[in-house]
Amino acid sequence: MKFSVLIPAYNASKTIESTLNSVLGQSYYPFEILVMDDGSTDGTLSMLRSYEPRIKVYHQENRGLSASRNFLCRIASGETIAFLDSDDIWHPKYLEAQEKVISSNPRAVATFTGHLDFHGLGEYKWNSAPADSRVLGEQIEPVDFFRQYNKMPGLFLPSYCCVPKRVLEDVGPEPFHPNLKITQDCYFFCILALKGSVVRIPNKLVAYRISASSLSQDKLTTFSDVLLAFDLIKNAYEQNASPALRNAYNAALASKMRFYAKVLVGLGESRKARKVLIRSIAACGDILSIAKSSYLIVAAMTFPNMFKRHWIQRYR
Predict the structure, then answer these.
(1) CATH classification of 3-212, choosing from 3.40.50.720, 3.30.420.300, 3.30.300.350, 3.90.550.10?
(2) Which of 13, 133, 144, 276 is the most buried (most CB within 10 A)?
(3) pLDDT for 148-157, tens place per residue?
(4) For 155-186, what is each residue's pLDDT tens digit?
(5) How far is CA 122 from CA 15, 126, 169, in A?
């Protein structure tokens, strides 16, 4: 199996060496390693050049994560695309495990492994046992995958995901939407749910780096971008999704609108929150969903401000 490893990099000089070394140290060596430097200003590009010709390095003026990933997806020539962010680290057996899972599940539109979190900018030393070749993975049907992803997106991130090149070609030339600044992954995985089932194994074969920026996430900006992602996939779900998947989409949209409204209320934007909540009622006709949104409308307009500001804080 030919793996194309795709790594977008922007000002990643403090972490990119650990990431690349984890790829170069794989027991199942990749067919190609493609890295896009997205206009870095911190020496990332020169660091990447030092790894040539073991990797192929591309450079563009800063255009964002979507543009970097989309370019690399288009030029990749392997049969399987393995995504990796420039600060995460693979277990030496990661691609070996992915090859076994993919070979056992040839119809899966994506395969995922488990992961563990670690903090700081240093190296990660693996203590876990290598992948168990007997673990064939859990097949997750499209509706369940959509629900699980939107409930626990941390279980399904690009750094522990492989996708057949044929599936990416079916998705289109821009699997990561260029209009999204934060939630490109949300858009991509929701579109992926329209293509078929995925498989996930529990083996923790990726070290996901927790940085200061991830800890200080701006919930207002993030969920505004999430709602934009859902708007961008709306037509695809209306035209191509099964009734069950469309219902899951509507329920998730209403839930995310409620969360966004809570953030707005915490910032004193009760009237704006009310408009969002009315939209959430229109989005999903489920009785429980309507009841939750209706309660929040009343609470947003009648609760004293001293309670509202503690609903959901903008930053972690």
Answers:
(1) 3.90.550.10
(2) 276
(3) 999 999 999 9
(4) 999 999 999 999 999 999 999 999 998 999 99
(5) 8, 13, 36
